Each structure stands twice: as C-alpha cells, then as structure tokens.
Amino acid sequence: MIVIPCPHCSVRNASEFRHVGEAGSRPDPATVTPEQWRAYLYERSNPAGWTTETWFHTVGCRRYITVERHTVTNEIRAARPAGRDGRGGREPAEVLSTRADSGSPDAGGQA
Amino acid sequence: MARSPITVSGPRSVVHGWEVSTRRSAAALRLSDASPLAKVSVRADADGALADALGVRFRGSRREDGVLVIGSGPGEWLLVGRVGMAPEIAEKVRGQGEGEFATIVDLTHGRALMRLSGRDAARTLAKVCAVDLSDDLTPDGAAFRTSVAKVATDVVRDDAGGGAGESSYLLHCERSSGQYLFDCLLDAGMEFGVEPAGPHLNQDEPAR
Q: Is the pTM of this model over 0.95?
C-alpha cells in the first residue's frame, strides 16, 4: 500500500487519491510545434527510479499535489501543493485572476 | 415537508417543517440523525479576510453564537447551526467578506449529517475509517475529510455535543450516501451496542 503525505491533510492511504500522471509544464499553445504538443500529450519517461507526478486528493482536500515517488520502492521523498507548473494544479485564486485578466478562461489558447 | 435522507424507526413529529423521528436512546453508544440542522458551505481565499473573520483554518473547528464553524478544506468551510437558521448564517457571513469573492451556499437539504457519541465512538469509527483518531492527532475540535466506509465524509470531533466524558463525532456526507453511511456505522457499532436515534434538535446540537 502506498501512503501519501498530503501537504494539506497529512498522511493518507493512496486509495483516497487519483493518480493523474507524470508532472510537467504545459507548453505555450501560441508557440508550440505539433511534435512538442504530441510529446506533451502522449510521451512519458516511465523511469525505474525517482519520478515527479501529480496526484489528486479526491476524498480529502480535493487539491492537486506534486509527489516525488520512487517507482520501484514506492518511497516518497517530497509532496507539495501543485503549483502553476504542475499539470492542472493552479490554485482557484490564480484561475480567477486569469479570468479577470483575459475575459475568457482559455483565451490564452486563442492567441 | 422536509424529510431527512436517513430513516430512523419510531414515533415521528414535525419540527420547523422537518418530519423527524422522536426516538431517543440512553445506550452507551448512540448514532443520531442530525440532518435537519442548518448547513452552510463557504468557499473563499484560504488566507483572506473572510478566513480571518471565520477564525478557523482547514482541520480545525470552533463554536460561535450557537454555530459550529468547521474548516472542512483549504479555503472551504462548513457552518452548522440550529434548524432553520441557514439564511441567518449565510447573511452574517456575507457581511464579513469585506467585498472579497466568496461562495456561500445553503446545503441543508443536499447533505446528510449524523452524530456518533459514546465512549466507544472512536473504536467504532476506526473500523470504517483509516485516519488515526487518537487524542494526539485528532483532539476535540479537529476536522478532516476522508473516506468513511468508502464515502467521502467530513468528520468533526465535537465532544461538546456528546455526554460527559464521551467523545462525539459529527459526520457530514452527500444526501444520497446518508442512509448507507448511517447503516454502515450501525453495523460497525453493533459489537459496542450502538442504538439509532432521531435528531436531538434542541439539546444535543450546537445551540447548546
């Protein structure tokens, strides 16, 4: 059983979480090439070792967190709230300010 | 007429527009339906002016003017008060926001609420919940959201709502899961002699 130290809720059983996948930053849709976008969507490094991934605490704080996990031993050395660079990990306040700036939630993709 | 999602057998009466069971229990471990109590959800900046006015953060709770203010998530609060008090609670919170963006929703009819009280309450809960319920990690007033019998549940340790020397927990979940959770807790508490009861609207709850 994997035990995840949620930065908001403290130590919890992994069955409370949804595994989102390897964490990485989203390329800028305005300048990205199709190859880079494809790599962002589908390619994963899948190491036998340390990896940084995003988990969603479904049955707890309902926040995305970034976890550094060893894929062989399942040891976890760090867990922190997912920030702007983590996938889908923006805090509500940031989402709101983006909307206020652009007038549309995904106007960044229209540029 | 409003009805709780939880059915407790026994005689019924109508209190503030809710049909409730008047069944009482004097058992050492009691599980009572508390669904008719006013429940108001507040969502706002976790470190904003409203958070300061509410006075608790995630994982804590406190009572103020007969209202139990529960920090149920980061930037998320649940306010529990007497039956029919929801508009009053919402209005008060609205006045505390100082123009900050916040969401205040009356959830009274959308959620189930129950109270487990007794000396064996923690042992019962431990059978269906993986969180450490010891006094060190979950003292009186502690609040957390976790899986209880596989249902996402807000749990608050609120000993003031139980009898003297007993621990007491409030459990809050979606209305549609209420009866299931109630039955699971009765099943888990069977070995400790748990008995179901109707809402103690005037004596048991935060108004006290």
A: no
